[in-house]
Amino acid sequence: MEYDVLIIGAGPAGLTAAFEASSAGARTGLLDENEHPGGQLPKQIHKFFGSKRHMAGMRGYEIAGKLASKAFEAGVSFLPKSRVFNITNHSSYKEVAYIYNNKVKVIRTKQLIIATGARENPLAVPGWTLPGVVTIGALQTMMNIYQVLPGNRFIIVGSGNAGLVVAHQILLAGGQIAAVVEAQNQPGGFAVHAAKIARLGAPVLTNHIVTSIKGSQKVQGVTIAHLNSQNNTFTMDADIVALAVGFHPAYELAQIAGVKSIFNNHFMPCHNQNMETSIEGIYCAGDSACVEEASIAMEEGRIAGAASAAKLGCLNKTEAHVKIAQAHQYLNKLRGYNKLNGAASSEQAAIESKTLTAAVAGSKALIRCSEKIPCNPCVSSCPAKAISMKPDITGLPQVDLAKCNGCKTCIAACPGQAIIAIDARDANSCKITIPYERYPVPKPGETWYGTDIHGNKICKVQILKTASRMSFDKTILVTFNTAREFALKIYDITT
Amino acid sequence: MRISNHQIMPVKSSKLVKIQVDGKEIEAYEGEPILAALWASEILVCRETEKLKEKRGGFCGIGRCGDCRMIVNGHRDVYTCSTPVENGMIIKTQKET
Q1: Chain A: which residues have CB within 8 Å of chain B?
Q2: What 8-state DSSP symbol labels residue A35?
Q3: In Å, how far is A5's CA from the nearest CA of chain B?
């Protein structure tokens, strides 16, 4: 017997599970096929949504580092570059076979947690096998870890958060987005992510599908069809097509072990409230249990880690019960949002004009976040406690304009880059401060253009100052001057 | 294309080396996946399918799909997306022999 608890997969679920099991006193091992822990987090260069408990506001690669060092400090032994290929279930232990350094190795564990993540869905349209058609994950890996882009002009198929976030990162890296193509009548991901690319001029074509990908040796373009009208197909040039059409649980190891599965859009392993599968002592957590997101993966990992430690007697049963019940409360909050149930555009317009009026007295924060998504770094970052959210994390943020002292801390804290500050003390002009993460960075004294919600240039702006602080974590706050009439029409700036 | 100026990502610091792809010398960073070096030099085609002779290139980027297989230092079926670059590697588009 080598381990009390063995976890396969060192992503957010696996790292959290390993921390929980090890800090309860279980001898804990963590296997991963990669050299470094973190799963898909190291390639995420954007600030994460959620709450402080899940390290929201930090960039994905920083969250990976934090989770890993917490687990290692708790005594977890990490087995990198180990690819598991078999699991056998015995009455008092599980046997896990893996390949390390071209050699087969076998270890035994009393409890096993499978946290192997998800796999990307392909999209079988004519031409999808052409070189230049890549998964969104492949593109993100190569772009954000190895800093290469396979081409210049990109078409993204699918506008879930993965498609929108990577589209934005392509723009940050200097690539062009020809279009993000979405079959539904609105972007699938969060509105703030869609807004970030829209205001840089990248179109999201809703109600459209890619019907074929063209090219002989490699991608040259795509044919796109409008879903609600006949004879409305057109072609668009591109050198890379990135598929962002969803994920499904990568739980083959659970299948090999004999775990029962169910079908709910995809096949996934059956599990109970403790994340224990149909086989006693085998747990699943994170995307391999059901594809959701990183905060949920962490909570599921916490449940599996605590439940497996409790079963071994390492963790007191009452303590485990409290931990698991608390994690379920968080899971309910994280899952219980309805992004469509947000603010109407008329309410937002009223908030904007009220903010402009209040800004005559000094700088005020304006939040352009109209969806009830589970995210609150704006609330927790505000030193004046001027931002609130009711009833909880899935409420809409509200700024108490009397309390807001214009400190601008929330602008850099917002993972959706959805907060600006307006200062209207001058009678004719307005000072606006926006978050900025692109290249080149504007310099004070330069003249740039203000752009509207669709990325169109609408007026000239004078750059007044740029601010960067450690706590802003590479987000720069750019303040510029503009005529009062454009104050609420500017969403971003461009050269 | 290499990403040169970026506000968030740190600047790359590993050593520049040379590798050969179908007889042509290209620059690569030691330790990066071979596929990253190919993409940086705008090389997208990795192999040709055995029966229909269709071109294939990197797809999943994490060692799953196998479409990025090439001949590396004489070995067939090397997953270029998950094999690190070493100085002087000889890489060839994989075709049916």
Answers
A1: 33, 45, 59, 119-120, 129-135, 137-139, 141-144, 146-152, 172-174, 217-218, 436-441, 474, 476
A2: S
A3: 27
| Strand (E) or helix (H) holding A20 | helix A12-23
Dihedral of CA A111/A114/A115/A116: which sign?
Answer: positive
Phi, psi angle pair for A409, to nearest 5°: -60, -40
Give which of A145, A64, A120, A96 is closest to B82, Cα–Cα: A145
Q: Among A438, A413, A425, A377, which residue's Cα sits nearest to residue A196?
A: A438
- Measured CA to CA in angstroms, residue B35 lies from A155, A173, B9 at distances of 20, 18, 20
Report the alpha-carbon distance of residue A376 to residue A337 in Å, rounded. 13
Q: Do B95 and B44 touch, CB atoms closer than 8 A?
A: no
The answer to whether residue B62 neighbours chain A at the CB level (below 8 Å) is yes
The residues with which A386 forms a beta bridge, in sequence order, are none
Edge to edge, the sheet with strand B69-72 lists B24-29, B16-21, B90-92, B69-72, B75-79
Whether residues B1 and A148 touch (CB distance < 8 A) is answered with yes
* Tokens encoding A377: 């770094």
Q: What is the structure's pLDDT at A79? A: 97
Chain B interface, mutation test: which of A148, A196, A441, most B Cβ atoms within 10 Å?
A: A148
Closest by alpha carbon to A204, among A234, A233, A182? A182
Q: Which of A114, A475, A474, A60 is nearest to A293 (CA)?
A: A60
- Rounded Cα distance between A341 and A373, Å, is 10
pLDDT at A457 over 80: yes
pLDDT for A159-213, tens place per residue?
Answer: 999 999 999 999 999 999 999 999 999 999 999 999 999 999 999 999 999 999 9
| Residues 6+ positions from A231 with CB-CB distance below 8 Å | none
What confidence score (pLDDT) does residue A1 get?
A: 61
Q: Which helix (H) or strand (E) holds A338?
A: none
Helices and strands: H and E segment counts in chain A: 11, 28
Q: Which residue of B has its CA nearest to A468?
A: B7
Q: How confident is the model at residue A339 (pLDDT cuts 50, 70, 90)?
A: low
Q: Are A212 and A123 in contact (CB under 8 A)?
A: no
CA pair distance A469, A476, nearest whole angstrom:
8
Q: How many residues can be counted in chain B?
A: 97
Of the given ranges (A355-359, A386-390, B93-97), which has the lowest mean pLDDT? B93-97
